[in-house]
Amino acid sequence: MDVFTRRSLLKSAATLLAGAAPPWQGLALSQTPRSSQTVYSDTSAVVDTASGRVRGYIDRDVYAFKGVPYGAPPVGQLRFMPPAKPRPWTNIRNSLQYGAACPQPAGRVDDLNQFFFEFDRGYQDEDCLSLNVWSPGVNDNRKRPVMVWLHGGGFVTGSAFELPSYDGRNLARRGDVVVVSVNHRLNVFGFLYLGSLGEPYATSVNAGMLDIVAALAWVRDNIAAFGGDASNVTVFGQSGGGGKVNFLMAMPSAAGLFHKAIVQSATPMTGNARTIEFSTRQTASMLRGLGVATVEQLQALPHDTLRDAYFAAGFQAEFELDARSRWNRLGATELRLIEFDFRQPARNVERLKTLLQTRYGHDERQAQMEVTRFSSRLYADNMGPIADGRVIVQAPFNPMAPDVSARVPVLVGHTLNEGGGPIFFTAAREQWTEAEMRNELATRPEPVPDGVVAGLREAYPTVRPVEIYAHTLNQGGLRYRIDALSLASRKAAQDGAPAYVYIFAWQTRVMDGRPRAFHRSELPFVFDNTDRCAHQTGGTDEARTMAARVSDAWIAFARTGNPNHAAIPRWPVFDAERVPTMVFNDVCDVRLDHDRAARLAFEKH
Question: What is the pLDDT averaged over residues 351-363?
Answer without folding.
Answer: 78
